[in-house]
Amino acid sequence: MSNKKLAQVWPERKLSAYALVITLSCNVRLRVGKLGLCRFDAGNYVYAGSAKRAFDARIRRHLSSEKRLHWHVDYLLASEYATVRKVWAFPETTTECGIIGALVTSGAVNVPVAGFGAGDCRNRCPAHLVRLSKKADGLFKRLGGQPYG
User: Fold this and answer.
1) Tens-digit pLDDT profile for residues 60-77
2) How far apart, in whole angstroms, are the C-alpha atoms of residue 53 and residue 13?
3) Number of domains in the chain
4) pTM, two decimal places
5) DSSP alpha helices (H): ranges in 64-121?
């Protein structure tokens, strides 16, 4: 869905949180910043983040292959085996912690690397990257999400 269409869906709301649905085509071990060497099994993952300003720029950055590795998710996305399959956008009433909390509560996920993406989390999320055991589209819609892009 284009940004213009999103503005029509949520004319009075700003986009604030997002979820990247990432597929890893095989098992990988990656050095992830201060987390060190991390193992990721092949499968589908969700990374939840926020961008209160410059939402579009943040998504473009995540999808770009030309960037300095800064956030934990950058290291994962730099892998040749990682592909962002879908981006979900959420209104300001939904937070990245709310997305992760709902996924964890649903039992549809596990946490592959404790603390991944949650270095500044004030809500004590186990991580902001989870591995999916089933599709989460229905849950994202219940949280007010719309496919982005």
Assistant:
1) 999 998 999 999 999 999
2) 13
3) 1
4) 0.89
5) 72-77, 96-106
